[in-house]
Amino acid sequence: MQLLPLLGVLCAFAVQQVTAQTWYYLRFQTPSGAYISSFSGNMVAPTLPGAGTYYLWPGLQPSDNAGVLQQVLDGRSGSWWIGSGWCCSNPSLSWGSGFSVNNGATVSFSNTVNSISGGTWATSITGGSSSATGSFPLPTHPMNQAIMAIELYDVSWTFGALTFTDVVITANTTSTSWCTGGPYNYNNAAVVSMSTPSASVSGGSSTCSISSIVLERPA
Q1: Quick one: signal sequence residues (predicted)?
Q2: What is this structure's pTM?
Q3: Which position among 21, 45, 67, 94 has the lowest Cβ density within 10 Å, counted as fewest Cβ atoms?
């Protein structure tokens, strides 16, 4: 994959020789000095048009923009496969295990860190009877950005809507505006429908909950 626009990070898998790259993504970003401790939700796999370089993912990016911890729905084989991984270096970490996903199936994802200032992230993905876990030590990369992305190479967004449900993001700040203000929509490139984000504060942390986020189509 190539660099994430404006964020300056490499994403999952190997960099490829391509002629066309298209991005659509939403980003929730915490205030300066505040970091995300958990990010979870569900992602519904759309109908894959055929084999092609389709990467659909939720992910976390650190404040230094060094990489992305992500759960990638990959359509290159002609059927969906999902796995967790850190892309791409500093440190170099092995990609986690994964499983095949049917069109229309829902995959639950979870990311939790053991130290808010930068520690080891425990990841899990579950879809039907399949599941996979991962462990990614990232002690120098505290995460301040939660991202939901469509990343395309030499293919177009013809698969319909990408839906996320029951999204929950927790960060070590009592600020709530990073949640209630809604996500940044890169270049306003996607038509998005979303339930109103709600925020709660407890013990010095704020939790952002969004029932539904739908990237409907290109703008």
Answers
A1: 1-20
A2: 0.92
A3: 94
